[in-house]
Amino acid sequence: MQIYFRGLLQRRSLTLATGVTILSLAAGCHKKAAPPPPPPPISNAAPAPTATITASPSVVNAGGGVVLAWRTTDATDVSIDGIGTVPSAGTRTVNPTESTNYHLVAKGDGGTADATARVTVNAAAQPASNLSESDVTDSVFHQNVKDIFYDYDSYDIRSDAQSTISQDANFLNQHPGLKVVIGGYCDERGSTEYNLALGENRANAAKQALVSAGLSPDRLRTVSYGKEKQFCTEHDESCWQLNRRAQFSLDK
Amino acid sequence: MNRRLVKRPFLLTIFVTSAIFLLCCFSGASAQDWVRTGTNLGVQRIRLAAADFKAASTDAQTDPLKGVFDRTLYNDLKNAGIFDMVSKSMAPTQTPGSPQEINLSAWAAAPSSAEMVAFGSLSVNGGQENVTGFLFDTKNAQSPQILGKQYTDTASEENTRHIAHRFADEIILRLGGGLNGICETKIYFVSNRGGSKEIWVMDYDGEGQHPVTRLGSISISPRVSPDNSRVAFSSLGKDGWSIRMYSLELGRLVGFESPAGTTLSPAWSSDGSRLAFSSSKTGDPEIYTSDASGGGVSRVTAFRGPDVSPVWNPKTNSQIAWVSGRSGLPQIYIMDSDGANVQRMTDGGYATSPSWSPNGQFLAFSWNRKYGPGAPGGQDIYIMDIASKRWIQLTHEAGSNDFPSWSPDGRHLVFQRQENGRTEIWSMLADGTEQQQLTRDGWNAMPNWSWK
Predict the structure, then answer these.
(1) CA atoms of A1 and A56, how far apart (whole Å)
(2) Which residues make up the CATH 3.40.50.10070 domain(s) of chain B?
(3) A187 contacts on B by Cβ (under 8 Å)
(4) What is the per-residue pLDDT across B252-261, written as a single tens digit (0 to 9) for each?
(5) What is the pLDDT of residue B218?
(6) What are the pLDDT digits (tens) for A20-51?
(7) Band of the pLDDT at A97, cuts 50, 70, 90?
(8) What is the nearest CA distance from A205 to chain B, expressed in angstroms?
(9) pLDDT digits (tens, 9 = 90+) for A171-221
(10) A197 and B CB contact within 8 Å
C-alpha cells in the first residue's frame, strides 16, 4: 500500500516536472518573438494535458493479473507503450510475464504529458495443477484466483469477469480442498448501509458464478465490506473501479 | 380604470386571472408552512429573555458553575426553535434573583421587549448546588408566574448542565404547545476516535461525548431503544456482519439472536417490542422483523437486489420505510409491516437513510438528485410529506449529508456531514435553519437521536 502511494507521488511530480518544462520552453519561444504584439490572453492557449496511471497490485507473480487504471485531461491522443491507443481514461487488466514499465503518453493541443506505472514480476509460478493444496499460499492463491470488478451501482458479472471466473473456477476445481472467502467491496461514494447491502450482492453474485462453474457452495463464504475497507483511496474513477470488486481469499 | 368600457366576458377573464394569481401567491407564501406546522415549529415565536442567574453564595465554585448554567440555559432555549431570544446585550442591567427583585416592565420595554422572562438564582454550599428558577409573563402584572422550580444536586459542571437542561425543558413544555423539550435527550453515533469504529454517545448539544462500546472491530448503525435501556447496532465479526445488542443498564453486550448472513441496520418499533433489519440469510439482502431478542423472525420483502435501512412509522408501527435497489439506484419505499402495499416515494437520483418523523407525517432522508457517473451532485438532507409526496431540501451546497435522525419533538434533525475531508455530526431545525456542528474530533457519523 505504501509503495503504491509513493509510486503515485513520484509519478505526480514527474508529470508536474514535464509540465513545467513545457511551460518554460513556451516562454523561451516567446522571448525570441518580436516584442510589440502583446502575448495572447492565457485563456486562448490550449491547456497542457495531464496524465496519471496506476497499477495494482504493483508486485505480482508471473502471469498474475494487474489492473492498470489511467486518467488524462486535455489530451487528444492517449497511448500506453505495448498496448497501443487507449481511451482518455479507463482500466485494463494485464498479465505481465516480466517486470514492466507501463508508460502512458497523452498528447494534446497544449503539449504532451506522460506517466509511468511500474509492475514488478516475481519469479515464474509453478504450473497450478502441480501444486498440492498445502503448497497453496496466499500469494499462490491470489495469482491463480483473481478478483473480479463491477460496474457502478451494479452487481452483475461483466463479460470480462466471466473469463476471470472460469480461470478461478478451473484452479479451484483442481484443488477441491481449498475453501474461499469472497469479500464484496464498493467505492467510496454513496451511503454506508446501502453499500454494505450492495457489497453483499456483489459477493453473492461472484459466489453464484463460481457455483455455476461447478464449485460446491459449501466451499464458499461471503463477507460484505461495503466501503468500510477501501483498497484504493484516491477520489477518481480509476480508484473507484479498483474498489468495486469481489475479492477472493483463502478461507483458513 | 376603463372597467365600464370592457365587455363582460373580458371582465370575467380578468377576474379569473387575478383569482388564479392570488391563489398562486397564497400557495407560494404558504410553501414553507406545511413544514413549519408539521414539525411543530409554528409560525409565531415567543419573545423570551433568559436573564443571567444571580449568584447567591460566596463559594468559589459559584461563579464558574453559574457561567455554565447561564450559557446552557440560554443555548437550550435558543436551540428549541420556538423562541425569539432576547440577546443578552439587550437585557436590563439588573440581575433579579427572586420574584421580589424583578422589574417586569423593564424587561417588557424596548429594547428587550420580552414577553416572557426566565430568571432565578444559583448557590453552592458545602458541595451542594441549589438552583431556583422562575418563568414570568411580562404582560400579566396580576399573576405573572408561570413556573417556579427548585433543583438540588452535588455541585459539578455536568450536574449544572443537567439542571439547566431540566429547567429549559420545563419552560419548553409550558410554552411549546405541551411537547416535551429535548434538552435531556442523547445522540448515539459512530466515532473512530479510539482507533476503531465504535458506538459513542453525547448530549443533544454535543456535550459529554464518550464511547459506549469497545469491541475493536467495526461497529455502525446505532439505534437506541425507545426506553433508553439498550442500543442495537451492527458489527463486523469473523463471520461477517451481525446485529448486536448493548445494555446501557448493565454496561455490556446482551443476547440478540442475529440471523446468519450479512445482517445490518436495526430499527426499533416505537413500543420497543419489534426490530426491523436487513439480512442476507437467503443470499440476497431483504427486510425482516423480529422480537427484541431476535426471535420470531419474519421476512417482509422478497425482491432481487439490496434492501436495507428499514425504519418503522413510530405513530402506528404498522408501516416500514426502507431503501431498495430493485430498480437500479437506491430509492426510498414504504410498505405495510407485513410487506403489503409497497409504494415508491422518491422519483430518481440516489436516495438513502430514511428516518420517520415522530408524528408519522414526514420522512427525512438523504438524496442526491443528480447522482450518476460524471455528475457529482450534492448529497443533501430532504424531508417529504408522505401523504402528498411533497418534499423540501434542507441542506444546500455544504458537503455530503447523510443519516438524518429526528429528535423526539419533531422539531430537529441530527445528521452527518462530510466536508473538506472531514465527517462530523451536525444538528439543525427541521426547516433546515440553525445548523450547528456537534463533533470536532476524528471521524463521526451515523447519528441516532434518542426517543426521550
Answers:
(1) 9
(2) 46-175
(3) none
(4) 999 999 998 9
(5) 97
(6) 444 443 333 343 444 555 544 444 567 888 88
(7) confident
(8) 9
(9) 999 999 999 999 999 999 889 999 999 999 999 999 999 999 999 999 999
(10) yes
The position carrying cell 480508484 is A239
Hey, is the C-beta of A181 within 8 angstroms of any chain B C-beta? no
Chain A closest-CA separation from residue B269 CA (Å): 19
Q: Which CATH number fits domain B46-175: 3.30.360.10, 3.40.50.10070, 3.40.50.720, 3.90.1200.10?
A: 3.40.50.10070
Domain boundaries B186-449, corresponding CATH code: 2.120.10.30
Tell if the CB–CB gap between B280 and A200 is shorter than 8 Å: yes
Overall size of chain A counted in residues: 252
- Chain B's closest residue to A182, CA to CA, is B240
Which CATH topology does A128-250 take? 60s Ribosomal Protein L30; Chain: A; (3.30.1330)
Give the long-range contacts of residues B237-241, CB within 8 A, separation 24 or more.
B239/A221, B239/A223, B240/A222, B240/A223, B240/A224, B241/A196, B241/A223, B241/A224
Instruction: Name the residue ranges covered by the structural domains of chain A.
Output: 2-122, 128-250
Residue B27: per-residue pLDDT:
40
Fold of A2-122: Immunoglobulin-like (2.60.40)
What is the signed CA dihedral for B232, B238, B240, B242, rounded to 10 degrees?
-20
Length of chain B: 452
CB pairs under 8 A between A and B: 85
Q: Given a cut of 70, is residue B375 above it in pLDDT?
A: no
